[in-house]
Amino acid sequence: MSLFTKRESSAERRRQIVEAALRLLAEVPLLSLTTRQIAREVGLTQPALFRHFHTKEELLRAVVDDQRERLGKALLVLFREQRMPLDRIEALFALLLRHAGENPGLVRLLLADAAAPGFPGLHRALDILASTKLELVASLLRKAQADGSVPAQVDVRAAAQLFVTLIQGTLLMRQRAGVETAHDQDESVPLKMWLAALRAGCPAREEEHDAHEDEHEDAREDEGPAFDPVVATGSERLVALDVRPILAEGRDPLGTIEAQLERLAPVGAMLLTAPFAPHPLMHLLSERGYRLTLEEREPGVFSVLICAPDAPELVDLSSLPAPEPLEGVLVAVAALAEGGAMLFRVPRRPELLLPRLSERGCTCLLVEHDDGAALLHVTRSRTHAQVDSVA
């Protein structure tokens, strides 16, 4: 058997284990569910299961990651439809409830077992799911404010938190009422009330913050601002952001991404590194005029190159042998007009190239990928150039 076949077989077995765990969670409380039960459901021995997942928590995190990926694909389909922001929120509400109905094991994790002790990694993964919904709704509400369908005085973050509460409350009522009774309920009523409150200007943002609110805002500074539809107007030409540490803390990185995007110049670009492909985010950014390129640079490490509307096209020289990347950059830059910019990908940090670009009156910014390749943003200017690496 080839290595390729073995890898595929291992991935398929992991998928079967994850699906079995999700099925069992629909009936068995988290603290009562054992890896032996899951192994038996798949037709494996317990030691064989541990070759794919070393701990029960690792397996449960894989369950949540799988559900996040499935939801992401469904959201991508939803956002491809041309709808107004509030219509998208209504569709999102229906999609989340439908997905929960199809995956009762996830509902158990979100509600009944959310406070189960001994699973900090699982709790962080669940926090990311809830935070993602909050940031996404906040983004749509800002768009609704921009088009006038929601009054400007509405506190979009508070409104988004209420939306998440509506989802969780509806799922809890389903769980208590039982499947048969739940089907008889009109679950759209809470959402209609929420929408009516929004259109009436509630929950309103207070004009003057008291001391308690100021402390609350200070505590949120590390999260970055909520996702906002304003096109970037900053001055940075190249920004790097690795969201993996943010996700490891159980936070959604959407606000931090937006804060970084606001720093971009109209000709700038941002290199985003993530442990999964952020398809819904990419679609939202493409609607705002950003150009995006997604790559899986190595297993489980995705990079998204986000180019501002006026950014130069990427010239990819990373597959060329030395010294062709160096020569290619020098030839291209020679024809660059004063004030013009170019964006290159080269196979590694170009130590020999950088001083030669400086001699030609170019300012360079550099971002390195995990695999050693580098993005190089070059601007032609009159002044003596400098070379900076972006952290």
Describe this structure in words.
With 391 residues, the chain is an alpha/beta fold. The chain has three domains: 3-199, Orthogonal Bundle (Tetracycline Repressor, domain 2), CATH 1.10.357.10; 230-311, Vaccinia Virus protein VP39 (Rossmann fold); 312-391, Translation Initiation Factor IF3 (2-Layer Sandwich). The chain is built from 16 helices and nine strands. The strands form two sheets. The chain has a five-stranded mixed β-sheet with strand order 5-6-8-7-9, with helices on one face. A four-stranded mixed β-sheet has the order 1-2-4-3. Helix 1 (3-25) crosses helix 2 (35-42), helix 1 (3-25) crosses helix 6 and helix 7 packs across helix 8. Residues 1-8 and 208-234 have low confidence and may be disordered.
Q: What labels describe this entry?
A:
flat, five-stranded mixed sheet, Tetracycline Repressor, domain 2, four-stranded mixed sheet, Rossmann fold, about 15% strand, disordered N terminus, Translation Initiation Factor IF3, alpha/beta, about 400 residues, 3 domains
Summarize the structure.
Strand 3 (291-298) and strand 4 form a beta hairpin.
Sheet-strand content, in percent, reads 15-25%
List the strand order in the largest sheet: 5-6-8-7-9
Span between termini: 43 Å
Highest-level CATH class of the largest domain: Mainly Alpha
Low-confidence stretches: 1-8, 208-234
Radius of gyration: 24 Å
Superfamily (CATH H level) name of the largest domain: Tetracycline Repressor, domain 2
Number of domains: 3
Structural class: alpha/beta
Find the count of extended strands (DSSP E, 2+ residues): 9
Average residue-wise pLDDT: 82
Which sequence of SSEs, written as H and E, runs from N to C?
Answer: HHHHHHHHHHHEHHEHEEEHEHEEE
Number of H- or I-type helical stretches = 16
Quote the CATH topology of the largest domain.
Tetracycline Repressor, domain 2
Q: Write the CATH architecture name of the largest domain.
A: Orthogonal Bundle
Largest sheet: 5 strands, mixed
Please state the overall shape, judged from the principal axes of the Cα atoms: flat
Helix content class: 40-55%
